[in-house]
Amino acid sequence: MTYFDWQQDSLLAENLSVQSLAENYGTPLYVYSKAAITDAFLSYQNALKDYPGLVCYAVKANSNLAVLGLLARLGSGFDIVSAGELDRVIAAGGDPKKVVFSGVGKTQAEMKKALEAGVLCFNVESKAELHRLSEVALSCNKVAKISLRVNPDVDAKTHPYISTGLKENKFGIAIDDALDTYRVAAALENIEITGVDCHIGSQLTEVTPFLDAIDRLLVLIDQLKAEGIVLKHLDIGGGLGVTYQEETPPNAGDYLAQVIEKIKGRNLELVMEPGRSIVANAGILVTQVEYLKPTADKNFAIVDAAMNDNIRPALYQAWQAIEPVTKGSSEAQAWEIVGPVCETGDFLGRDRKLAIEAGDYLAMFGAGAYCFTMSSNYNSRPRACEIMVDKDSAFVVRERESFSDLIKGESLLPISE
Ligand code: LLP
Q: 268 and 162, same structural domain?
């Protein structure tokens, strides 16, 4: 079910015309669908059936407070990678006791804050981090619950920048060193071992790499058990892909059914950290065509959104569908959809066959995940406005930035004659 659908020639976001939203709120504009986020989250939640588990939404995919607040009310936990993300979860009404803290570079201050908030688990990525966490926990008289992020060395068959489960990646503890690292953890003060986790990459379109990774972790879990280290939970990370173009990823229900089949009877709670598959297709980026610039080589459509609003095409050569929000009758031609930023890499789409004119609004699909959160102010461009649609209503969930936002905290040097 998609919540961005066509009614005759007009694109709707739930029940609202995207053309009207663009006219009312201006562009570039992020539009999210509350129902789409809710459905995607519930597809995970419902797939658990009565298997004990927790869906920890990966905040980095889309950290808008309204998104986090919606998910918190649906019962979601959260996967965070910084103190800033923890603050957002708390500000949105999320429960810190349902938070797992991932990331290779947790600072002492971040550890302290997370311990005081009472997070569910630290997903530890190295021995050095384990020692630091033990010291911080001791100093604030807390016990840190931990899982080791194990790198199972499986090929996730995804873009190299978002593949994280191979030996050569910076992430996790090599599976061959995991047993030894658990022994170190077991001997450390103020550390309580509760689980094991892995995250092998993002935008995976097959279940096999996930299942292979779980197989390797189950071997480890058995070895630990033989040494008297009994784990309570298995965290399978995020990574389930979505359809941007013609990918056919499994749905959350089929995926989880296979995972549960593998681990049932083992008395292991199942934790997962999906990001993209909850929000990517719940958002679009709306932009207006400023100029059409046909040249001898290529036709450029210069739009008012740019790589600072969505860096995915420039960074990963990511492909996201682009369509006019109101279909006209002119003839389609191939266009390079580019932004105003002074970089050749500033494009949103290449060689797109579209019937467009200056002034038209275009929607870029699949823009709910890793688009706004990776946006910047490059070229002193204010960040876009974000709105959330709920049936017939639209709510501004982040105002468009202004010049004062751009220079917040900056100052001129004192004048010295
Ligand atoms: N857990 C951990 C430890 C992660 O590193 C990530 C994503 C997730 C969960 C969520 O994964 P997801 O379900 O969203 O695939 N910016 C890139 C994606 C980077 C993903 C980083 N880690 C993109 O735009 O494609």
A: yes
Distance 168 CA to ligand 1 centre (A): 18
Task: Tell me the C-alpha distance between 286 and 360, whole Å.
Answer: 10
Q: Is residue 51 annotated as involved in ligand binding? A: no
User: Which of 101-105, 157-161, 230-234 has the least mean pLDDT?
Assistant: 157-161
Beta strands, E only, 283-373: 283-294, 299-303, 322-324, 333-338, 347-354, 361-364
User: So what's the pLDDT on residue 169?
Assistant: 76
pLDDT by residue (tens digit) across 39-83?
Answer: 999 999 999 999 999 999 999 999 999 999 999 999 999 999 999
Q: How far is the CA of 349 from the centre of ligand 1 (A)?
A: 22
| Ligand 1: residue whose CA is nearest its atom 7 | 202
The pLDDT of residue 158 is 65
ipTM above 0.90, yes or no: yes
CA dist list (Å): 170 to 152, 155, 402: 13, 15, 37
Does residue 342 have an active-site annotation? yes
Alpha carbon 31 to chain centroid, angstroms: 16
Q: Residues 225, 372: one domain?
A: no
The boundaries of the domain holding residue 239 are 103-272
258 and 312 co-located in one domain: no
Ligand 1 site, CB within 6 A: 58, 61, 79, 102, 162, 199, 202-203, 237-240, 273-277, 312, 316, 370
What pLDDT, on the 0 to 100 scale, is given for residue 170? 83
Give me the pLDDT at residue 160, please: 60
Q: Which of 272, 291, 323 is the last residue of a domain?
A: 272
140, 342, 371, 385: the catalytic one is 342
Provide the token pair at 280. 């990517």
Nearest to 206 by CA among 161, 154, 167, 260: 154
Give the tens place of pLDDT for each residue, 364-400: 999 999 999 999 999 999 999 999 999 999 999 999 9
For residue 328, CA distances in Å to 10, 96, 321, 322, 395 come to 10, 49, 17, 15, 28
